[in-house]
Design a protein that fits this description.
This protein is an alpha+beta fold. The protein has one domain: Glutaredoxin (3-Layer(aba) Sandwich). The protein has 4 helices and 14 strands. The strands form 4 sheets. It has a 7-stranded mixed β-sheet. The chain has a 3-stranded antiparallel β-sheet with strand order 1-2-3, with no helix packed on it. Strands 9-12 form a two-stranded antiparallel ribbon. Helix 1 packs across helix 4. The longest helix has 16 residues, at 73-88. It is globular.
């Protein structure tokens, strides 16, 4: 294991079983009084195209980043998100948005299949993808790193690779401002439930 300073954040690089995952260890607690992150057009599993995250202003947005071929960290993150959904999903002022880290493979069809396997609800939980350029702009806006590992090409022509990526979940308030950032795979669901509900009560 090694630690690398990236900007103002500490990134822990874990390598094992030919899988490289970059996990953001910094916790940004006080994010008030910042401008909303820039938006880019992304396609969602509900069939709509959103300027994300601008089009979701007026809602509290729980934002996560995953890719469907991820063998471990993303599964842990989605598990935490599902736990959080069970606690706050009935509140119509709260929406969940999960953005791909791998737009080359995560088509809308792949994301819909992923949602079906995990039991992700269709209402008020958007799984988002788009062109590589648009998705990368969203990553940059949130300070998320996503980098392809060594790629192997199968005889079929298919590529096999993993993504080194930041492990992070963000809470956006009704004005689109990032209020919290936490590691997704180790998220304290009790704390996050309280914090999301607190932000949702704000005018």
């Amino acid at each position: 294991m090694r630690e690398t300073a990236v900007g103002n954040h500490w990134v822990v690089a874990l390598r094992g079983a030919n899988i490289a995952l970059v996990v953001a260890a910094s916790l940004l607690i006080g994010c008030n009084n910042q401008a909303p992150p820039p938006s880019s057009p992304l396609r969602a599993t509900d069939g709509k195209t959103y300027s994300f995250p601008a089009d979701l202003r007026g809602k509290v947005v729980v934002t996560s980043f995953i890719y469907t071929h991820c063998p471990d960290i993303c599964r842990m993150t989605i598990g935490r998100m599902l736990e959080l959904w069970e606690r706050v999903g009935n509140d119509t002022t709260i929406v969940f948005a999960t953005v791909t880290l791998d737009p080359a493979r995560d088509s809308l069809g792949a994301l819909r299949d992923y949602a079906a396997v995990w039991g992700i609800p269709a209402q008020r939980w958007l799984l988002l993808t788009g062109t590589t350029a648009d998705v990368e702009r969203v990553h940059a806006a949130f300070g998320v790193v996503a980098r392809k590992s060594y790629t192997e090409r199968l005889p079929s022509g298919d590529e096999v690779y993993f993504i080194d990526h930041t492990d992070a979940v963000f809470l956006l308030d009704r004005n689109g401002i990032i209020r919290e950032r936490r590691e997704g795979s180790t998220l304290d669901v009790d704390w996050c439930t309280h914090r999301v509900q607190q932000i949702a009560k704000e005018q």
